[in-house]
Amino acid sequence: MGRKRCVGADCSKMAAGCCGVKKQKLSGSPGSGGPGGVGAGSGVAGTGHCGSELGIGSSASVAGAANVSRANGLGGPGGNVSGSSSSSGSSGTNALSPAPTGYTSSGLSPNLSSGPGSGSGGRKMVVSAEMCCFCFDVLYCHLYGYQPPRTPRFTNDPYPLFVTWKIGRDKRLRGCIGTFSAMNLHSGLREYTLTSALKDSRFPPMTRDELPRLFCSVSLLTNFEDVGDYLDWEVGVHGIRIEFFNEKGSKRTATYLPEVAKEQGWDHIQTIDSLLRKGGYKAPITNDFRKTIKLTRYRSEKMTMGYAEYIAHRQHHHYQNGIGHPLPPYNHYS
Q1: pLDDT-flagged residues of the chain (< 70)
Q2: Is 143 helix (H, G, I), strand (E, B) or coil?
Q3: Among candidates 234, 297, 246, 299, which has minimal Cα distance to 34?
């Protein structure tokens, strides 16, 4: 089927999709009216996370002067499908300290996981455990009022990215916001670490007490392709972004990251129908309507790290790197 690369300005307009969705009951038949019970308040991404007017299902915004569109790619409890936008990045996220320090993977637990869709065609992955460590450091320093962490040593190449926070033994979604605009990784991870932790409209701002129960995932988005058939993508491999016109004639968009459909046990039709509801489409969903959807598929590289692995890394590296503030407390699943 015909497809073309989505590059440059076209991709920069896309807001993102996030991680982890509230379970939804979906119909799998192509002629069905869509997922049952999936309305504006059920499993729909809230403002600025996964899905939005600018590139996802619920809403996205332009992040301050950087003109970066934001979105969530997961869905999750509560939220709405309006076009309202979240506020731009947290204060202080661009304050970079001099003298890079080393973020290396030695001393890390083998439990670190790279998620579904990670890597592409056997090439070396760009995403790394060090990026998750850096996100934890940024959040920790913010919550405790310390100077922001120094500039990390991992690549500063630009990528579309998402930062996802989950919490507890059952890894409940706690925040997920990202951008389809390529951002330099050092500043992008600083910004979206705090935006996803503090400004995800589906959740209250994160607190110090939650730190020991957190898991951080970094997703870098790659390989954007426009496809001519809304079924031309693979569950568990591709993230998808759809563009459609709702029953009032307004253009809407929505997205899910690559892991969402597989985690929910959805097939192609169920995923598409969930995205339509996430994007605010309220009319019955027919197969003829699905054929009018414009779909972009993409891949992601994903790395996940828990707080315990982060602590092990800091104990091994951070004092010798000269960071003056104390190690955060470690209370396993209080």
Answers
A1: 1-123, 317-334
A2: helix
A3: 246
